[in-house]
């Protein structure tokens, strides 16, 4: 695994995983752009998550709701008044910090010093709302604004009735969504760990009160296992954090965070909360006709009853919600940190290798000609590359821009699980040794090579990259 975040930052920039946002204009703090390899890795992560949480279950639906929503969503969700960070200013250096995360901050004028060590005095904390605002429509009227969503969750709650009515689901069932979220973080830091624009993979799982605790437990176990089995994170670097009562969000009955030991420290990767009936209870009309247990704002704007008719008890109930909420970017970062390895070879050299799970690797196969000035070898290699590419299932590349040793190193560094090499045996030019129409397949992790007939190549690779 990576020892420092710098190892990952530099690999990401060098090989095209992740770039600082708006770099040519001096950057925009808290934003990053995913490059040619980063977008593949991120898409693979999201696809595997969707596969596990939607396709592999019988009780889930998907959703893709709008980023811009009616302002009342954020009033009744509580974000307008509680989605705040305590902000302090340093009177000396004018640096701004989160009062609860002083250890993460360093002064702008005194970059080596933590604010506590800077001679400057800190102001009293004041609340700072982290939602970005944007104008809606052409008239700059102070009321015609919307927030960029700071979480994807609310889009699910406000569509509860739509999903229920259009699918005819019975409790318990869940709705999954992956999408962008925006938070005006006071101190975006640590590469893609804390940014102002990021992606979330969230589930709102609706159930009957009373079932909530067991379902909560099951998600904690299932998702922890998923990060290990599917994403390859080491159990030693993962832990569960039982959020203590005084740190719980106002809507939460219980929250357990899945923590990962990044090179920067052990930090939250995914939060799994029991939100009770707070969300549907907040956004429903007719609140006083329903037995809502959570403390909610009196809703005077909602036009829908967000309830479920329970045939067993013959009454309308407001479902409880279990919410697993994971950061895509924090997932990508954990996966990269975990997979990174600098391996000392017998010849004294060091090779950098990303030991990614094959299903996550941006490129699955690199087809390499042993000699680039042998037309028959080049032809055959290109034909094999097209054959794999046309099967349409995995990203395949062809590369002949360096000697074979260097080509292997390049693929190791970006985590390509298989390199296929076309040599003289493949084209039947060596002595008749029975190796005509076979290629070598080199395994990234062991560097072992196996001879595989071209006609079996597709299946050989396919079997090995399935999650
Ligand atoms: P933190 O305490 O680290 O700020 P949080 O508790 O505010 O995180 P949640 O509101 O629970 O985070 O959001 C759910 C998930 O979204 C987090 O587990 C994390 O993976 C991701 N996330 C939240 N804020 C950011 C951010 N600024 N940058 C990247 N990912 C984020």
Key attributes of the depicted protein:
single chain; 467 residues; alpha+beta; seven-stranded mixed sheet; five-stranded mixed sheet; 12 helices; 23 strands; 28% helix; binds adenosine-5'-triphosphate
Task: Explain what this protein looks like in three dimensions.
There is one protein chain. The protein has 467 residues and is of the alpha+beta class. 28% of the residues lie in helices and 26% in strands. It contains twelve helices and 23 strands. It has a seven-stranded mixed beta sheet with strand order 3-9-10-16-13-12-11. The protein has a five-stranded mixed beta sheet with strand order 20-19-21-22-23, with helices on both faces. Strands 5-4-6 form a three-stranded antiparallel beta sheet. β19, α10 and β20 form a beta-alpha-beta unit. α2 packs across α9. The longest helix has 20 residues. It is globular, with a radius of gyration of 26 Å. The chain starts with a helix and ends with a helix. The mean pLDDT is 93. The protein binds adenosine-5'-triphosphate. Adenosine-5'-triphosphate binds next to β10, β13, β16 and α9.
């Amino acid at each position: 695994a990576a020892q420092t975040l710098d190892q990952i930052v530099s690999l990401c920039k060098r090989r095209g995983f992740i770039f600082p946002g708006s770099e040519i204009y001096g950057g925009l703090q808290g934003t990053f752009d995913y490059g040619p390899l980063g977008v593949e890795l991120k898409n693979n992560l999201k696809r595997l998550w969707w596969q596990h949480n939607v396709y592999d279950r019988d009780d889930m639906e998907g959703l893709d709701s709008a980023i811009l929503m009616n302002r009342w969503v954020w009033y009744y969700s509580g974000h307008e008044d509680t989605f705040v960070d305590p902000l302090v200013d340093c009177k000396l250096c004018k640096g701004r910090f989160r009062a609860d995360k002083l250890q993460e901050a360093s002064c702008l004028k005194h970059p080596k010093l933590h604010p506590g060590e800077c001679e400057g005095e800190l102001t009293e904390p004041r609340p700072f709302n982290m939602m970005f605002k944007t104008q809606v429509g052409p008239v700059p009227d102070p009321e015609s604004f919307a927030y960029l969503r700071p979480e994807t969750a609310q889009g699910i709650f406000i569509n509860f009735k739509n999903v229920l009515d259009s699918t005819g689901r019975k409790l318990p069932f869940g709705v999954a969504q992956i999408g962008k979220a925006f938070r005006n973080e006071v101190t975006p830091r640590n590469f893609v760990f804390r940014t102002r624009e990021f992606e979330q993979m969230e589930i709102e799982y609706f159930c009957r009160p009373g079932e909530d605790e067991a379902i909560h437990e099951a998600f904690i176990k299932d998702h922890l296992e998923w990060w290990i089995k599917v994403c390859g994170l080491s159990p030693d670097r993962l832990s569960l954090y039982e959020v203590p009562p005084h740190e719980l969000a106002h809507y939460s009955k219980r929250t357990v965070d899945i923590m990962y030991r990044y090179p920067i420290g052990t930090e939250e990767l995914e939060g799994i909360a029991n939100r009770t009936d707070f969300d549907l209870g907040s956004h429903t009309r007719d609140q006083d006709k329903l037995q809502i247990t959570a403390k909610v704002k009196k809703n005077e704007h909602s036009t829908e009853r967000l309830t479920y008719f329970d045939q067993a008890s013959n009454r309308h109930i407001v479902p409880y919600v279990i919410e697993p909420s994971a950061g895509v970017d924090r997932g990508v970062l954990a996966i990269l940190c975990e997979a990174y390895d600098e391996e000392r070879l017998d010849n004294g050299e060091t090779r950098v290798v990303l030991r990614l799970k094959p299903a996550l690797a941006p490129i699955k196969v690199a087809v390499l000609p042993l000699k680039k000035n042998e037309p028959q070898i080049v032809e055959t290699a290109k034909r094999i590359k097209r054959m794999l590419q046309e099967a349409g299932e995995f990203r395949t590349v062809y590369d002949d821009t360096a000697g074979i040793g260097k080509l292997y190193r390049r693929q190791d560094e970006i985590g390509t699980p298989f390199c296929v090499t076309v040599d003289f045996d493949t084209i039947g030019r060596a002595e008749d040794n029975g190796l005509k129409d076979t290629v070598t397949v080199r395994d990234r992790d062991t560097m072992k090579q196996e001879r595989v007939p071209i006609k079996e190549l597709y299946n050989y690779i396919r079997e090995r990259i399935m999650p």
